[in-house]
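Below is one such record:
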Amino acid sequence: MLKSVFLATALTIVYAASSFAGTTITPTTTLAAETANTTSAAATFTTSSNGNVTPGNVSQENVHKLLYAGSTAKVYAHYLGWWTLSGGSHIHIGYDSATQAQAHSQISDMMNRGIDGLIIDWYGQGNTHIDAASQLIKQDAETRSGKFNFAIMEDQGAVRSCALTAGCDATQAVINDLNYINATYASSPAYMRINGQPVIFTFDTENLPNINWTTVMANVQGNPKIVLRNDQGFRISFASGSYAWVAINKANQDDWGQAYLDDFYATSRSYPNEVVYPGVWKGFNDTLASWSENRIMSQNCGQVWLETFNKMNRYFSTITQPQAAQLVTWNDYEEGTEIETGIDNCVSVSGAMSGSVLAWAISGQENTIDHYSVFISLDGQNLMKLADVAAGTHQLDLGTFGLAPANYTLYVKAIGMPSMLNKMSGPVLYTQVSPVVPFTVNVRAPVNGSTLGELVRFAATGTSSSPVTAMRIYVDNQSMYTVGAAALDTTLTLTPGAHYVVMQAWNSLGQVAKTPLNITVAALPVTAPPMVVNPFRPSRGAIFPTLTTASEAIARPNPSVTMRVSRNPMAGVNSSRRLAAKRTQSQRLGLTPAAQPVK
């Protein structure tokens, strides 16, 4: 039975969140959904004495995960369609196989687990209930877009009575059944085929007396491949191969068929042209069957399920691929082989907090767990998956999620290996409060101890648990700039010399934070502008000095020359233009300044 394991006490933890952006809690599922029956089994069914568990929250990890790397094998479930609400000659399991809803539910459940199809244990045309259930399976499989197949297995129960009755033509009875299968089922696009040929399985029909299989195969339509139970199908001429089936050692309940499977798989290697269907199972217990022989194979808390897969994987590879594996069985409740309700791995999970770390422990064998899912909730019922954690890891640091201050409930769900029950921990509670952020002023500019020009950039940010409401710049204990915000970025012109600067912030609680620094403002060098000599009109007889630069003219003055020095660059330019004009006029008269007579 699926049981949630609750912690004896709820633990409340206070921790500081990380400083980066937080995780928003948006519920995507519920506690009820994560622990509910996810199977096609009847909700009214309860754990039975032969090892069938109450339908529970079953792992929907793909069953192909249990196959060897590179496997191309399909996985088919062995299916029984004889269940009725009245029970009849069988035990009551809570559903009727011959309903469209049940057929649809079962195929959906199988597909959710990665199962590729099913093999129907069929009891002939005369068993109208099973035949009706089988046709509903066919119809639903045809709606699955080619992703689900089915096949018929002619059980010896279909013709056994005839074969043991004098005067009854058992050979013709088999022919009639196989031709009915061909016409009614094998014509379906969803029917199982190998190289275009339909596959028909038998369950010991070939072992009944008074059946001539040469005549059968000469008269059966559709050219089917016949696949038999155990390794005889490799050797019998009319058969195309064999499938493995659960083998019971009544003297040893812990014998899960190791020797049988070794022999079956080793024999299959000697017949490479024959098809082979490995078998996997969880266990066996027929004590509730009307035909019981008190045969029991212990499930060992899911270990038999895993071991039968492991045994198959040791014999097959990408070089030697089997046709498909058969799950024995999907829903034989009376022999205790059904996996429809899930396989109990006998695991429980418990969690606790240590600081910001959620840690959990398990009881049971962890090789039956695929991974862990951690869920978080604000109300304990509506959940969001926080993370998936690999099996073997038993903790999760919540400090990496930046969760907002609130009361939270956490759950750890152990997701079972394919078709095993999932197990949910009890609630783990904690309260996260607002983190205490030190009140500081982070100065980006200027740099403490730097030497700058007169125009100084000031940039700073205040951080605090409470909102920062204002910031101010003090220079030499004088308030120079104030802003009503948590950050500032401005420039100020300062006089040359050393300055003591304080960048200060206030928060909504009236608290103050400040950062002091020292800077030096360097005086800008004074650079004299270039001097320009104003041109002048010389008096007659003047001697012109030779001047190379304006500075040289000042250094070597000529007493006879009066010069006006202008610091207006444009004044020099304009005077030069006037002088050039006068020279041009003199040239027109045939005189130049150098040629004018001195008087």
